[in-house]
């Protein structure tokens, strides 16, 4: 998968350090639903699960990508699509993205999200795509708005992080809205 400045590929056996650099980074994981990982040993089962999932052919619902700069070939982050439901008339999926801090503020997150949304509508023929973020993560909320997503809900005190409960925002876009943007 490609966008103007980025290319996406599934993770490979030799990508452990790339993915670990995302999930072990305190700045990146500050607003994430999951906590940062503290050791390679702790992270290995998750990485193995991703590799096993990548080899699945039938009835696959989760797609996790390493994202790279087209120009420099540098790894910039992680992106995923999880198809929640699908039938002959469409379906819906959740998208997610994490960028290494040195790439923040350059529009990459919006470019990633727009590419994932396009993939959901064009390649998977879904009718709805949604994303969620910690209610305190205004930058992620801005990305969702920049993609044409509309706020659907604020879930009260559903994320437990740093010894406190925090709210979560959910945004979505429908295929018809995306086509008419």
Offer a quick outline of the entry.
This protein has 181 residues and is an alpha+beta fold.
Report on this model:
There is one protein chain. With 181 residues, the protein is α+β, with helices and mostly antiparallel strands. The chain has a domain at 6-127: Aminopeptidase, CATH 3.40.630.30. Helix content is 31%, strand content 36%. It has 6 helices and 7 strands. A 7-stranded mixed beta sheet has the order 1-2-3-4-5-7-6, sandwiched between helices. Strand 6 and strand 7 form a beta hairpin. Helix 1 packs across helix 3.
Helix percent reads: 25-40%
The helix tally amounts to 6
Helix-strand topology string: EHHHEEEHEHEEH
Structural class: alpha+beta
Q: Could you give a short account of the major beta sheet?
A: 7 strands, mixed
The CATH fourth-level homologous superfamily of one domain = Gcn5-related N-acetyltransferase (GNAT)
- The CATH architecture of one domain can be named as 3-Layer(aba) Sandwich
Quickly name the level 1 CATH class of one domain: Alpha Beta
CA(first)-CA(last) distance: 21 Å
Approximately how much beta-strand content do the residues carry? 35-45%
Whole-angstrom Rg: 16 Å
| Poorly predicted ranges | none
What do the pLDDT scores average to? 96
Compute the number of strand runs.
7
Q: What is the spatial order of strands in the main beta sheet?
A: 1-2-3-4-5-7-6
CATH fold title of one domain = Aminopeptidase
Question: What's the shape?
Answer: globular
Notable traits:
181 residues, alpha+beta, Aminopeptidase, 7-stranded mixed β-sheet, 6 helices
């Amino acid at each position: 998968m490609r966008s103007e400045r980025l290319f996406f590929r599934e993770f490979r056996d030799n990508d452990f350090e790339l993915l670990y650099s995302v999930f072990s980074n305190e700045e990146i994981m500050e607003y994430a639903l999951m906590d940062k990982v503290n050791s390679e040993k702790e992270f290995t089962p998750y990485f193995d699960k991703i590799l096993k999932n990548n080899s699945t052919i039938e009835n696959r619902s989760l797609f996790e990508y390493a994202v790279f700069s087209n120009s420099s070939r540098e790894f910039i982050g992680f992106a995923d699509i999880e198809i929640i439901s699908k039938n002959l008339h469409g379906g819906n999926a959740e998208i997610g993205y994490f960028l290494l801090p040195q790439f923040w503020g350059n529009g990459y997150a919006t470019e990633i999200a727009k590419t994932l949304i396009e993939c959901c509508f064009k390649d998977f023929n879904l009718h709805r795509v949604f994303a969620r973020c910690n209610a305190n993560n205004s930058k992620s909320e801005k990305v969702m708005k920049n993609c044409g997503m509309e706020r659907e809900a604020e879930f009260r005190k559903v994320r437990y992080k740093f010894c406190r409960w925090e709210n979560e925002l959910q945004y979505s876009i429908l295929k018809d809205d995306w086509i008419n943007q």
